[in-house]
Amino acid sequence: MSWGIEIKMAKINRRGLMLVLSSPSGAGKTSICRELLSQEENLKMSISATTRPRRPGEVHGVDYNFIDGVQFDKLIKKGALLEYAKVFDYYYGTPRDQVENALEIGQDVLFDIDWQGTQQLGEHLEADLIRVFILPPSTRELERRLRERAQDPSHIVDKRMAKAMDEISHYPEYDYIIINSDLSQSVNSVRSILHSERLRRGRQIGLIHFIKQLRDGH
Questions:
Q1: Which domains does the chain have, with CATH numbers?
Q2: Which among 57, 102, 140, 173 is least surrounded, fewest beta carbons within 10 Å?
């Protein structure tokens, strides 16, 4: 039955947030990120700057911002990076401006970075940061996933397994822990975290104005 009443949905402006997913290699973090981006409209991937050469099929400004070592060094000296690291002879970093501009307009930003990068982000924008650590269901399952990739030789898999134990030791630094036994379930769990964090009072920058309207009878 229709009562002929039009209900206008209220919207309160909010500040965006930074959603970080970290995990040891093989725990499923990349798959979770991919699903999140396909299901959440107001979530975009942080685009890192890198000195690594562009690979076939990669697009500047979409996959990475490809710059040379001199440009990267200038960004470091200007304090224009929220976090950066050297990985296999190449530098990777997160430009401060693109993230801060997104947060200002209420856009949420997704990060696929390790615990060291997460620590650096926290030094700059702690209040905006949501940390989620992804764990494998077991060591045996983690090793199986790494070996089934068929992308790395056995000795590389062994190195990744050894590194995984060190990475896992940093789990207490994270706000949420998810055991990735089932991809769909894990994605739903991260989405629940994201939806809850979006409702935090401190992020509702338009709340005072909305409350004033309520009190004025609007």
A1: 18-46+107-215 (3.40.50.300)
A2: 57
Give the burial class of 1: count Cβ atoms within 10 A of its Cβ; 0-12 exposed, 13-18 middle, 19 or more buried: exposed
The pLDDT tens digits for 138-179 are: 988 888 888 876 566 777 777 888 888 899 999 999 999 999
Indicate the pTM of the whole model.
Answer: 0.87
Please provide the DSSP assignment of 40-83 as one string.
Answer: -TTEEE---EE-SPPPTT--BTTTBEE--HHHHHHHHHHT-EEE
For residue 84, CA distances in Å to 50, 117, 119 come to 9, 7, 11
Listing from the earlier edge strand, what are the strands of the sheet with 43-45?
A: 43-45, 108-112, 18-22, 129-135, 176-179
Tell me the residue type at 122: G
Q: In this structure, are residues 146 and 157 in contact, taking their beta carbons and an 8 Å threshold?
A: yes
Query: Tens of pLDDT along 98-118?
Result: 999 999 999 999 999 999 999
